[in-house]
Amino acid sequence: MSILVTRPHPDIETTAASLRARGHAVLLAPALKFEPVAFHDAREADYGAVIVTSANALRGIASQLPELGLLGLPLFAVGEHTAAAAREAGFAEVIVAGGDAASLRDKVVRSAREKVLKKKDTLLYLAGADLSRDLGGELGAEGFRVVTQTTYRMAPVKHLPREVCAGFAAHDIGAVLHYSRRSARAFLDAARDEGVEISALAIPHCCLSEAVANVLRDAGASQVLVAAAPDETALFGTLERALRTRLA
């Protein structure tokens, strides 16, 4: 049985390598395609910190970072994966939240209360084109000035790879891993267009959060499991439980 991974490149390769190291066969079907958006800042604001909810936001402007003068600012990262991308990009001061946008908002608010961050400073939020949560608005309601700049978009992939369709037809896919609401929706749309939706919905779907899981439940998936924490280690734990249950 193969594990189907739906996250975009380049993270999908890292996930696949981790799964293979655990002894799993892996199939890849990135449901979204990364597209960078050039950074244009006409405001010329004097920023006090950077906020990032996805490593893709940094990849989108990686070549521009040295000239933008942002690397000397503290960066608030949503979780460890994004924090690692920030350090690799050259940020020296990286403050890590608990893995979701709510914990990132709370981390910024606490940092201001603890005088780590000046509340009067303007915060630069590097974001994707499609936001599942208005983090800038939530911080604005807390009294912060936030400038949101789009640095990337994720375009849905319309078709599943041929080997993935064959895997569903042969009932050779043991579970699917989902990392975001948008990628889950794109996967379901592609499965429907390819005529494998019934087979796809009948197997376990392991999701990074309840928000992601709800997309699968609404589509009619019969086995939807949610990671205990919004990180890949917890997601892999959910996968192992799903596979044990299926084999029992």
Kindly report how far apart the N and C termini lie. Answer: 15 Å
What string, H for helix and E for strand, traces the elements in order?
A: EHEEEHHEHEHEHEHEHHEHEH
Q: Low-confidence stretches at least 5 residues in length (pLDDT < 50)?
A: none
Secondary structure tally, helices: 11
Q: What would your notes on this structure say?
A:
- Helices cover 42% and strands 23% of the residues.
- Strand 1 (2-5), helix 1 (11-21) and strand 2 form a beta-alpha-beta unit.
- It has 248 residues and is of the alpha/beta class.
- The longest helix is centred in the last third of the chain and has 16 residues, at 232-247.
- The mean pLDDT is 93.
- It is built from eleven helices and eleven strands.
- The two termini are 15 Å apart.
Supply the key terms.
11 strands, 248 residues, 23% strand, 5-stranded parallel sheet, 11 helices, 6-stranded mixed sheet, alpha/beta
SSE diagram, text form:
Blueprint: E1 2-5, H1 11-21, E2 25-28, E3 32-36, E4 47-52, H2 55-59, H3 65-68, E5 75-77, H4 80-89, E6 94-96, H5 101-113, E7 122-128, H6 135-141, E8 145-156, H7 162-169, E9 173-178, H8 181-194, H9 197-201, E10 205-207, H10 210-219, E11 224-226, H11 232-247
Summarize the structure.
This protein is of the alpha/beta class and 248 residues long. 42% of the residues lie in helices and 23% in strands.
